[in-house]
Amino acid sequence: MKFSPLFWPIQLKGNIIYILDETLLPHKLSYIKVRNYKEACRAIKEMKTRAVGQVLLVMYIFLQLIKQNKQRDLLKVARAINSTRPTLSFKYLTDMVIGWSKGKASLEKCILGFLEGLKYSRMKQAEEASKLLKDGDAILTHCNVSGLMPLIGEFAKKQGKRISFFATETRPYLQGSRLTAWELQRAGLGVTIITDGMVAAVMSQHKVNKVIVGADHLTLNGDIANKIGTYQIAITAKYFKIPFYVLCPPASGLKRGRDIKIEIRPDKEMLEYQGLRLAPKVAKGYYPAFDVTPAKLITKHIHLEIKR
């Protein structure tokens, strides 16, 4: 099975964590060296890694602590991780590690076992998604799901299905045009980039017939939080009777979507791009990084089953 570099973008070599810098893609495949938890937390805040990369990084932070003989700092590090990005529920991960540390089994073995299970579960999630597709399907996706879209395409090929993708740009960070399109074309899958505002027109022209997106947060009632713009795509898909599938993480302890704290990122991230000002200096910006899609708009949740 071939994997995109984004499928597993974090590595631990010796005492140093290597993070694939997603902000440099597709122009440069480069890794950041991280020597301690503070540098790792900064990488999360600055979106150097995102989606599953953040989950992996959390676990590798704790493995790094073990290798540095600093297990006494577990609680302090857990608090630092939990404060990085409010919408992404890292607490279930940090609570899990703290719980393991109090047991009889080796904490390192527990973390490595979790990571191995996560890799297997992600593959199963992609395979399940591929079974929902038909030969000739054109799938609309928004943002980036860390290597799962090309994996879905590979499973579909093995099932004798030819599929293609439409990727929204996903402004302002352009994860769709920079990351999703890049990894899909590397996998030999057809991909067409559209702006975020073209979704309704593309659906009305019958150019796509399925939607698959990821989710950064799943609540107990099935609501999800995902990259800003997902909610309006779900509403539009409902109007055009297009199935809307979500690749979900494990559910958090929150009851419903309105309980999710939405991260508001600095407005300069949408007013500037790579140092270039895109708007008048007097203009203000508002950048909620996520929105909430109600469960009633979701055709099927494709769950990531992780043993806790």
From TrEMBL:
EC number(s) given by UniProt: 5.3.1.23
Record GO biological process: L-methionine salvage from methylthioadenosine
GO MF annotations in UniProt: S-methyl-5-thioribose-1-phosphate isomerase activity
Class in the EC hierarchy, top level: isomerase
Keyword vocabulary terms for this entry: Isomerase
Keyword field contains Isomerase: yes
InterPro entries attached to this UniProt entry: IF-2B-related (IPR000649), IF_2B-like_C (IPR042529), Initiation_fac_2B_a/b/d (IPR011559), M1Pi_N (IPR027363), NagB/RpiA_transferase-like (IPR037171)
Keyword Isomerase: yes
Family membership noted in the UniProt record: Belongs to the eIF-2B alpha/beta/delta subunits family.
Xref: PANTHER family: METHYLTHIORIBOSE-1-PHOSPHATE ISOMERASE (PTHR43475:SF1)
This protein's name: S-methyl-5-thioribose-1-phosphate isomerase
Organism (species): Candidatus Sherwoodlollariibacterium unditelluris
